Structures are given as C-alpha cells and as structure tokens.
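Example 3.2
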Amino acid sequence: MYDSHISSDSIFDDYTINDDKENGYIHYDVDYFWENFQNDKYKKRINELASEFLDGKIDNDNGVEITIKCKEIYSPKEYNFATDEIVMDVTYSKMRILQVVKKDHENFNQFLKDNYTSYDGFMSFTSNNFDDWLVDFEENEIRSVGAVLSYLFQERITENRYEFETFVVEGIGYYSEYIDSSEYESEVVILETYIKDNYKDLNIDTIDFDQFEFEILDTESCKSISKEVFEKIESNTMSMF
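Structure, written as tokens:
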C-alpha cells in the first residue's frame, strides 16, 4: 500500500479533512488526524477488501488455474528495498505451469529479463533468466512462483488493478472511521458538560475557553460545539411546551 493508489494518504486527502473542519463537520485538524491515524485498522480493512475481491479460483487461456486466499498484509520495517505486500495462500499445479512455460520459454525468458534485472536504484532478488528461474521453481523458491504467476496472469493483473483500486476506494469508508479520537472526545465531553451545567448563566460570546487549556479544540471549535449544545438544550426546552 505504501506509495500506491490505495495508501491512506492517497485515499484520505488533507483538503477534505481541513474543509470538513472549516464547515464544522469535525472539530480536529489534519495534524491531529494523522498523528492519531489507526494504520493497523486501515490495513485490516484493506485485507478484508482484498479477500472479497481476490479470493477464489482464477484461470487463464493456457489452462492454468490457481486458487487464491488472502491472509494478511506484511509491512517491512524499512521501505528501501521492499514495500507493503498482501500475503496469500496460492494453490496451483506445478506440473501444468512447467508445461506451459517450457513451451513458451523464449517469451518467459524475455519477461524475466525485462522485469527482474537489477539496475541502478533497483536490486532484484528474482532470477532474470529461464534456466536460473527453473532451478528456483523446482526448489519452490517463493519469488520464482510470484514471477511465473505474474507472467501467466499479466493481462488479468493489468485489467484488475484499476478495478481493485476502485473497489477499495468505494469500500474503505470514511476517514473518521480510522482515527483514535479518544483525546478529542474527552475534551468535547468536558466542554459539553460545562455548558449543560452552567447553561442559564452563560453566553457563548463571553465564555473564556482558555480556562480549559484544551490541546486539540481551538476557540472556533469550542464556539461551534457550544452553539450546538445551546441549540439542543433550547430545542428540548421548547418541546416541553
């Protein structure tokens, strides 16, 4: 997900969060959001969506069939040489794959050369020629499996990439679902309680909000919340008559 179209900072943009704050829909700023963003919860949801989209059987025109079961998202400690990956259980026929790629070994060899040859800024850990790949595949080396499946299903991968990204965007939900807002909510409760307890003696324009020493709520947010509480109290009072 890191540095991709489904990374959190690609899906949840700062403009929307700031705009919602200015319009009074939320009362925390974009810095608070990212400082309290629940990345594990976000990754879990991505994995759920990946399972919905990918789990099941897939076949290609050469008669190679695989069964996919998404398990979890792996995140490296450093992103220098790796990125986030969806870990999957993939069931396939080793014999059938070998039959197909041996008949098409020239094209597959070129695919390996084009995609897995190291160059300045990129270090490949996958064999970049058919002969070395074959040795790795016979030994069930995981990168060799990924390489051949990428080759055999490259058209499907290309076709589905945009569909999957769209599926994630539509299913990920709203940004507020992924924030630990406990500190923010605590400040809101303090302010609301103060307003309710002192409603008869208060005027929004004369309340000294600095007395609360809030770290998250600014003056404008305090005024907005106070106004909402006042209106709710007055509405309930009117409904009694």
